[in-house]
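Thread title: Can someone regenerate the structure for this chain?

I was given the following input by a collaborator and told the matching structure tokens would be attached. They weren't. Posting the sequence so someone can regenerate them.
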Amino acid sequence: MKAIVLGAGKGKRLQSEQFNLPKVLRQANGRSLISYVLDNISFIPKEDTVVVVGYQKEKVMEALGDAYCYAVQAEQLGTGHAVMCAKDALAGYDGNVLLLYGDMPLLSRQTYQKLIRYHEETGAACTLLTAVIDDPPAYGRIVRDSAGNLVDMVEAKDCTPEQLAITELNVGVYVFDAKLLFENLGKLQNNNAQGEYYITDIPKILLSQGHKISTAQVADPMESYGVNTMEDLAVCEAYLQRAK
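Best answer:
Regenerated them for you:
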């Protein structure tokens, strides 16, 4: 198992420029957001973990040290583009890869391991983590058919009003067959509301090719919250204090 941690973002809504820090180095309870994330995936060796850096990359690399692999995303063109930037770092690897975010400090080791275990047990090409939240944040929605099969994932900005009413959300954390992931990255297109390359399109491409896509649901929906705003940061800090 290898891992790709997306950590190139600026964190505009987190007022990161005011603090002169990239998003993943903003602190919750005296620790950087990404330090929680890396602790929770420490069952994967550091040398098998690729951290995608971008905005103020030198600060992130200095904070994390030389043991990790790094890939640089010079332009912020979406999550799919960020994964493309990690391709060379995983050249020749054909096992499974965990894809996650450096700004989600609440996702537990147990949740990551559950996702990986379920991926291996089901023999899927991709397994994605979902959460059911009655009052959903602006996350992508999981669209299923009448039999409960996954048929689509739609980013919140691209959802119809009916799709926005769906309470099963795409957390944005995946396990992929690395070979299939990198083979299909070139098929991503940016014809969406943001003009970005979404990694969420890869499971849809794999589905269209007849590959199996599995989902695993997070037990505690609070774990699925990422830090995008000052309000999010306050919520995460409160959760982490209670969890001590």
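The radius of gyration is 17 Å.
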